[in-house]
Design goal:
heterotrimer, A mainly alpha, B alpha/beta, C mainly alpha, B: globular, C: mainly alpha, globular
Chain lengths: 315, 239, 355
């Protein structure tokens, strides 16, 4: 019997939490890779996400002026290529000069990049919210009817299906890349121990470039998925994601990409489930404080287990 | 320079930043030799290896690998030129499997290495059963084996070992020294830094005693072991 | 004369805001320049100072907690104390972390502070913010001050009203600016004394080589928490004066991290981190560049508008602020890469001897 509890819990808390978790997971991959390989917290990562969603919107808009109606996911392909180039250019001109300086210099530089990229987007597209996808997302009919037959009706809008499927596909490719390709194993090796990587003859600069490509691509996917989910884009969306993504990376263990994925899912679910009326009638945590959940998890983690759930690096 | 000399260091001055640690050190490793550097803590033993690798600042002096000068060369290129290096600690990628660790050692080589891997697994049978295991789960001695195997893939011309037996139990120590001799018998010259001076000198052809960043004594392994002053300084309590 | 008055008042406001930023930069300098602690949540501490001051000194309001009407100086002091208390809690939790983690944690804390200010509507009036914050000197012209002790000793309500009507309305502006400048100067001398004191020399030693300092028996963590608290206290005071200057504060726009946290970082790095004079110089210089760039961009837009009739200048005007922020960001990158030590590089106190 699909009781009202499960109906409500799964459809209105669990699935949205999973979707949010996928977005955090994709974003956290880039954070944990740069943290592990380049040894710094990249504050500009959220801005790459944000920029990709604007670029996607722009590509879709331009295409429509030629009479082409593109699904945002198609528009995201050229946008993610742009995001990769953006990440590489930022690294070349703003991070690379500090490779041999104390890491905090790059942190400050990335702090600056955060503002530069955001200002640039605001100059080009203005500071106001833009509608990314119009209309109200209706649950997928097929799934709804099909699951109703078993008395456990699932209400999943198409946008959530695309996000979940998209994330699964990216994860499979990512898993293949890391476990079966030379460059992917090299990335894991550098992330594990950069000094040893260097004296083992691994070309660390190439690995760094590969890291930006992978991180940039995942950030672009996360940005577009977030825009698909919320149906609007705004210039502060990247900054809002930054803290949960860092929390996910720390939760999963720095330099552990699969840990970051797990961390992202946990944080996403925790944020959504914190609004569930577990005790009494009201939400456990008032919705206004939802974004504080990720932060609290992160602080607890830093206090009690800074190496993360999956034994990452502690610097 | 002798044509049998594989690695030679001439009047090397080096250190970290402003601090000078090595003062005009000269060391050479010849064909088929095991050479040990021994000395008290802080004498700069490991610093010599780092200087050869190019991971620290060289102020003056020269380092030659055969006829090629290798000071001022990037560490990854020094490795490519044929210097195998096993750091003292953190010398395996703990989150990679044993086999992946070997593959990382072979990063610069494009062609198929299955034969080479087979050869190494035969040299280190302990590792063969653990191919798929994460290196972080190996015991200390096995890690040291893996680190050495990883450094041997590249057909190194010389192998540098930084305190290969540090922190190991006596049983593993013997096994490691044994392995070092086996590797050496296959024709690879070895330069190692060791705390366990007595045992190291026993298997070494020659040794250098380093004190305060300068050469103090030089001689064959047997000569140094027999030297009463060296014995009093380093061999008494340790080994 | 009118024009000169305009310039004079503009200069006063430059000094006022420049001085507030100088305080923020000095506070950050204690944390970053002295102790090497990366605080990316300057805005959060300024917000604590501003809200503490505002809630304790404003007249009773139906919108938010208040009506205590504490003396303004008490408000300033409590703003410092409160910022210090929050910094103590954060310090105890986060100070052992590496600089990057601390940066993430402090960004998070600034966000949490913002969340609290936004959500605890009963106390803070939420996103609508707090209005009519009494401003030092100007507050004398408010009825609730001149009808009460001690001002009522000197004259009655009528007398004060007549007096304030007889002097120009802007009379308080130079006094306010001078007060802030005096506080900057006092803070400067205090920090300079501190810098060459045993405590300050120990901070330098810890920053240079934490392990060696710890090995020498220094309680590194405790010293760093102290530096973090001291910096936060100064930021809290700056926040209190920011609240006074603005008179209306709200959680989001007032304490926008790009204008509070980021700009202060640019100021400190441009001026020279580790150098108190540098922090002050950087604050005034960057604030001057920032506010005059507004005039420049507006001028350029006007010229463009007269040159090309077709341009819709409202969009440009709307976005000019972001162009300025973009340039400030690029300026930071330039300074970081070319002049990482800033205009006035740090002068080390002699480390020899006991510390």
């Amino acid at each position: 019997m699909w009781e009202s509890f499960w109906f409500e819990f799964i459809n209105f808390y669990f699935i949205p939490g999973l979707v949010l978790g996928c977005i955090y997971a994709l974003g956290a991959i880039g954070i944990t890779l740069t943290f592990g390989i380049l040894r710094f917290a990249n504050f500009a990562h959220g801005e790459i996400m944000m920029t990709s969603s604007y670029l996607t919107w722009e590509f879709v808009l331009v295409a429509s002026s030629f009479g082409l109606i593109l699904h945002p996911i198609i528009g995201a392909i050229p946008a993610s290529i742009c995001a990769i180039f953006l990440a590489l250019i930022v690294d070349r001109f703003f991070y690379k000069p500090f490779r041999n300086s104390p890491t905090i210099m790059i942190v400050i530089a990335s702090f600056g990049m955060m503002l530069i990229i955001r200002s640039l987007v605001q100059v080009i597209w203005g500071p106001n919210q833009i509608t990314f996808v119009k209309g109200i997302a209706k649950p997928n009919h097929f799934i709804k009817d099909f699951t109703s037959n078993f008395d456990m009706m699932l209400l999943i809008p198409n946008k959530h299906i695309s996000i979940l499927l998209g994330t699964i596909i990216i994860m499979l490719v990512f898993n293949y890349l890391l476990s079966s390709t030379k460059i992917g194993k090299g990335m894991r090796a550098v992330s594990d121990n950069p000094n040893l990587a260097e004296v083992s003859g691994i070309n660390v600069e190439n690995i760094v470039k590969a890291t930006w490509v992978v991180g940039g691509f995942c950030a672009a996917a996360a940005g577009v998925f977030l825009a698909l989910d919320t149906q609007f884009i705004e210039s502060t969306m990247g900054f809002r994601m930054l803290l949960p993504m860092f929390a996910a990376a720390i939760l999963g263990g720095i330099g552990r990409p699969f840990g970051a994925v797990a961390g992202g899912l946990i944080i996403g679910l925790a944020e959504e489930l914190s609004a569930y009326p577990w005790l009494g009638n009201g939400p456990v945590i008032s919705p206004g404080y939802k974004s504080g959940v990720a932060f609290s998890i992160m602080v607890l983690m830093l206090i009690f287990r800074p190496s993360g759930l999956f034994r990452g690096k502690v610097f | 320079m002798n044509s049998d000399t594989i690695l030679s260091i001439n009047k090397l001055v080096a250190g970290y930043g402003e601090t000078e640690i090595l003062h005009k050190i000269s060391i050479s490793v010849n064909k088929n030799e095991i050479v040990s550097i021994i000395g008290p803590n802080g004498a700069g033993k490991s610093t010599i290896l780092k200087a050869i690798l190019g991971t620290l600042n060289i102020k003056s002096g020269e380092i030659f690998l055969k006829k090629t000068k290798i000071n001022g060369v990037k560490p990854s290129d020094v490795v490519k030129k044929g210097v195998g290096y096993v750091p003292q600690t953190d010398n395996v990628f703990v989150s990679l499997s044993v086999h992946e660790n070997l593959e990382m050692g072979a990063w610069t080589i494009e062609n198929n290495l299955n034969d080479k891997f087979e050869e190494l697994y035969n040299l280190f049978p302990d590792l063969k059963d653990k191919k798929k295991q994460l290196a972080g789960q190996l015991s200390g001695g096995q890690r040291q084996m893996l680190a050495m195997a990883k450094a041997l893939i590249l057909d190194a011309k010389v192998l540098l070992l930084d305190e290969p037996t540090a922190g190991l139990s006596p049983k593993y120590r013997l096994e490691i020294f044994d392995t070092i001799q086996r590797i050496n018998k296959s024709g690879l010259p070895i330069l190692m830094v060791e705390q366990n001076a007595k045992q190291a000198l026993q298997i070494s052809h020659r040794g250098y005693v380093l004190v305060d960043g300068s050469n103090r004594y030089t001689g064959t392994g047997a000569e140094l072991s027999a030297d009463p002053e060296v014995a009093r300084m380093f061999l008494g309590s340790r080994g | 004369m009118e024009i000169f008055l305009g310039y004079f008042l503009y200069a006063m406001s430059l000094l006022t805001v420049g001085g507030i930023y100088a305080l923020l930069a000095l506070g950050l300098n204690v944390q970053w320049g002295f102790a090497g602690l990366f605080n990316a949540g300057v805005a959060g501490f300024a917000a604590i100072g501003a809200y503490t001051y505002a809630l304790l000194t404003t007249a009773e309001s139906q919108f938010h907690f208040g009506g205590l009407e504490l003396p303004l100086v008490v408000g300033d002091i409590l703003a410092m104390i409160f910022a210090g208390i929050v910094a103590t809690i954060i310090g105890l939790i986060c100070i052992r972390l590496r600089a990057d983690y601390l940066a993430i944690a402090t960004i998070g804390i600034a966000e949490i502070i913002k969340l609290i200010l936004k959500n605890e509507t009963n106390i803070t009036n939420g996103p609508r913010g707090i209005n009519k914050i009494p401003r030092t000197w100007e507050h004398f012209t408010e009825e609730r001050f001149y009808t009460n002790f001690p001002m009522n000793l000197f004259s009655n309500q009528k007398g004060w009203e007549a007096f304030f009507a007889s002097i120009p309305k802007w009379w308080w502006q130079p006094f306010f600016a001078i007060t802030i400048i005096l506080i900057v100067i006092i803070t400067y001398f205090f920090l300079e004394k501190l810098r060459v004191s045993p405590w300050g020399r120990m901070m330098t030693a810890i920053r240079e080589n934490e392990k060696a300092a710890a090995a020498a028996g220094k309680n590194v963590t405790k010293r760093r928490i102290e530096a973090f608290i001291l910096g936060a206290v100064i930021m809290g005071l700056a926040g209190a004066f920011l609240g006074q200057h603005l008179r209306l504060i709200e959680p989001t726009q007032t304490f926008d991290p790009s204008k509070m946290t980021f700009l202060v970082w640019v100021m400190l790095i441009a001026g020279g981190s580790g150098n108190n004079k540098g922090a002050i110089l950087g604050a005034f210089l960057i604030w001057f560049v920032w506010s005059s760039s507004e005039l420049v961009t507006n001028g350029v837009i006007e010229i463009l508008a007269t040159m090309f009739d077709s341009i819709d200048i409202s969009i440009l005007k709307n976005r000019a602020g972001f162009i300025r922020m973009l340039f400030i960001g690029l300026l930071l990158q330039l300074i970081l890469q070319r002049y990482p030590k800033g205009i006035l590089p740090e002068k080390r106190p002699a480390i020899s001897g006991k510390y």
